[in-house]
Amino acid sequence: MASFQLPVKTLLRPVLAESNVSAFAVSRHVHHQRRSCHHHHSHSCHPLIKQNNNKRKNQTNHFSTTTPQTTDKLQSGLEFNKSHWAPSYAEKFASLGNGQQPQILWIGCSDSRCPETTILGLQPGDVFVHRNIANIIHEGDLSSSCVIDFAVGALKVSQIVICGHTSCGGVNAALGDSKLGVLDTWLLPLRKLRAQNLSTLEKLDSKNAIVKLAELNVLDGIAKIKEKSVVLEAMEQRGLKVSGLIYDVATGLLRTVDGGEESQDEIKARLTAFKTS
Length: 277
Ligand SMILES: [Zn+2]
Fold this sequence. Notes:
Elements: H1 23-29, H2 50-63, H3 73-88, H4 90-96, E1 104-109, H5 116-119, E2 127-132, H6 142-154, E3 159-165, H7 169-175, H8 182-186, H9 188-196, H10 198-202, H11 206-225, H12 229-238, E4 241-247, E5 254-257, H13 264-274
Helix pairs in contact: 9-11
Bound molecules: zinc ion.
């Protein structure tokens, strides 16, 4: 597998093109153009960046006459941070310097189109975050386990949200059969869900199959989060809620994923098996 390539998004207007914009107004200027991939799968097409490959290939001849020059986004971001963003939050940073009290733990995908705080219209200090490829909860993953443990046990968040999204490259990869190296190991829980729900997924076109598997993955993540004793204790003692969402990258809308009510027997079995003290 080739190393990760960064998506090219030359159509985006430079963030700094306008002054006097608030931090959140800026995000509204960043239009993610809807695009479709016209070429079929090939060996050069990494499943996680499938949608961008066509763009890259045709970039020089097709866009050279129609798009503004590319901007160094890190450089412009650094300038914006200093001149606009930090000053606009001056008061907020006085209190943030003393600590955080986020209500929400967000577990989402690393995808650049899913910036949780922006999507929710919230601010620094509001959301404690863990993001990885395809928002997968692995039982043995030290990183997500530590984040959950700290957010629940120390920060006492009142909500854990696990959020999947449409057009997820990780989910798409798990629905395909290309060898990806270490990513294959990471995506194993998704492949397991694919196997368990094969007949359902095979009836769907690829776009809907991605959404379906993303939903199943969110529900699987919720189930695994509820196998952690620190979570079960907080649910019991202070009403911690664990819920699921799907974010539509083409509309910007979030919707709830509901696995249905657990029976009393299921709840009892879960608490008996996983709650330790
Ligand atoms: Zn994703």
